[in-house]
Specification:
The chain has about 350 residues and is α+β, with helices and mostly antiparallel strands. The chain is built from 13 helices and twelve strands. About 30% of the residues are buried.
Amino acid sequence: MIIIFIDFDYFFAQVEEVMNPNLKGKPVVVCVYSGRDKDSGAVATANYEARALGVKAGMPIKKAKELAPNAVFLPIRKELYKQVSDRIMNYLKSITNRIEIASIDEAYLDVTHKVKDLKEAFELGKKIKEEIYNREKITVSVGIARNKVLAKIAAEMVKPNGIKVIYEEEERALLDNLPIDDVPGIGKVLSEKLKEIGVEKLGDLRKFDFDKIQQVVGEKKAKYLFDLLESRYFEEVKERKIKHQGRYLTLPKNSRDIEFIKPFLFKAIDEAYNKIDKKLPLEISVVAIMEDLDILSRTITAKHGIVKEKAYELSLELLKRILENDRRSVRRVGVRLGKLLSSSTLEDFLK
């Protein structure tokens, strides 16, 4: 198996630089504004000039402005970024039909059938980088290896705008010395648990038997870690299907008043249903982010597809359940639609 991983560099901010070349070289911060006041919200992404000043994704905008007062702060433009992403992904699909779009700015390509070895894959990776830049003026980082995880690690090692191959003979030394925090799929919570028992690097797993690691991270993650370490990890590149869609809105003020919250909840439903096009959900969840940022949710699963008018009714019932069992006020409210029926499934159901 030969995998090429493509990672669009600081994508949202880079698109803004392409749209406005005067931004190049300046710290640029793309933000999700909540609407409460001019600086309420969080950072979506930042270019490397802003990151050098300490700005990070997820950081409150007010904190980012303290760190980078002279940066250019821009509102997120999701539709614009999606258009650019779609064009790049369509080009990548012309390279191979074995493609897994992991997110708006990441994709895995299985080129096993296109190249004879990793050296040839490197030449293909260079061609892909050049073509994306020629088409969109977007730089990407490219990782190439014998599996998806190693390809992703390779790209991480050469950000931004780099390309790297991890050859088979390099795998063991690299994996043995890979900090457990840097293993894709192992988040902060699990990495801290592993560190507590002495696993600082992936190679430290060799000191433990499978049962011990399973007790710490669970059977699935333990198998993943040992398979990766022993070069037995070869998960297929496969199309990812969207399992749910959601929309969340910040209220103008914290509230427990259902009548006050209702129009924002219904707007979230409208926008979530627009995302799923002609599909219908079997499951609807109302999500409330409380005044202290704690997250509460309630879910209903139906036997048949839930039309939007029914979703309004069910969402109010779910919101009431949340508020009946909690005395805090709501800061943000949203809806998540799950178990989506495809149009073909829906047509069969309606016959």
